[in-house]
């Protein structure tokens, strides 16, 4: 597979064209960003860890029937993925109150929610990725129909159900996570982007130690050590 020109660079990855019009190469970066990139940093080896973690989780989800864009892992930092049009909605799934949810609604951090909460955010850096309702999504044409939104919700809840049980068995709480979806050339909705400590909150089940990007957001430190621990537990 020939790696060609850079076609997109985001906060955590670079996307390259290939000699196949339907396939791209995703390269994971070592960069760290928080608060819509107002805080920036770098952790050597973070990209490789996220690649390994996301690859393993996507494989688990695929085995459970979740369609993803992942084709194969090419190197420590690269994946071959199906080309798809990214839906401009970040789907956030929450099991425990923390972060922006606690600040926005005054919920005590660590409160277990009475049910899994799914929220939509408009993927737009200039607007700081605002939370949006179903009607907002339809007014802005982010999706074609209410059915599409229900599909995104349904898949996100399925992902949560699978991963919550998986991480529970590994001694981790899946506090919340963000997923993105894409539409391939055949019109199929695929799980895209990544699932990693950059896009999830993981707490140790016994101590509530944070093992995710909050260590960077909150200046706790030892980001790489935390990511390594998540990978170790996934592979154990």
TrEMBL record:
Protein known as: Phosphoribosylaminoimidazole-succinocarboxamide synthase
HAMAP family for this protein: SAICAR_synth (MF_00137)
A Gene Ontology biological process term: cobalamin biosynthetic process
NCBIfam families attached to this UniProt entry: purC
Span of domain SAICAR synthetase/ADE2 N-terminal: 6-233
E.C. code: 6.3.2.6
Catalyzed reactions per annotation: 5-amino-1-(5-phospho-D-ribosyl)imidazole-4-carboxylate + L-aspartate + ATP = (2S)-2-[5-amino-1-(5-phospho-beta-D-ribosyl)imidazole-4-carboxamido]succinate + ADP + phosphate + 2 H(+)
Taxonomic superkingdom: Bacteria
Entry's Gene Ontology molecular function annotations: ATP binding; phosphoribosylaminoimidazolesuccinocarboxamide synthase activity
């Amino acid at each position: 597979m020939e790696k060609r020109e850079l076609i997109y660079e985001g906060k955590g990855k670079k996307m390259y064209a290939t000699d196949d019009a339907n396939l791209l190469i995703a390269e994971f970066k070592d960069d760290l960003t928080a608060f819509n990139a107002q805080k920036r940093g770098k952790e050597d080896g973070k990209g490789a860890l996220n690649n390994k973690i996301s690859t393993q989780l996507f494989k688990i989800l695929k085995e459970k029937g979740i369609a993803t864009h992942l084709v194969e892992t090419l190197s420590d930092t690269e994946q071959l993925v199906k080309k798809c049009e990214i839906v401009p909605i970040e789907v956030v799934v929450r099991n425990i109150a923390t972060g922006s949810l606690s600040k926005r609604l005054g919920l005590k951090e660590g409160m277990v929610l009475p049910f899994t909460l799914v929220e939509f955010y408009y993927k737009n850096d200039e607007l700081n990725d605002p939370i949006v309702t179903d009607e907002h999504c339809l007014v802005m044409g982010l999706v074609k129909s209410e059915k599409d939104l229900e599909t995104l919700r349904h898949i996100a809840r399925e992902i949560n159900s699978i991963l919550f049980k998986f991480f529970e068995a590994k001694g981790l709480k899946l506090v919340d996570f963000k997923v993105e979806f894409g539409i391939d050339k055949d019109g199929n909705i695929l799980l895209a982007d990544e699932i990693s400590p950059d896009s999830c909150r993981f707490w140790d089940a016994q101590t509530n130690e944070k093992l995710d990007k909050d260590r960077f957001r909150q200046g706790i430190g030892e980001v790489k050590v935390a990511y390594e621990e998540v990978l170790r537990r996934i592979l154990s």
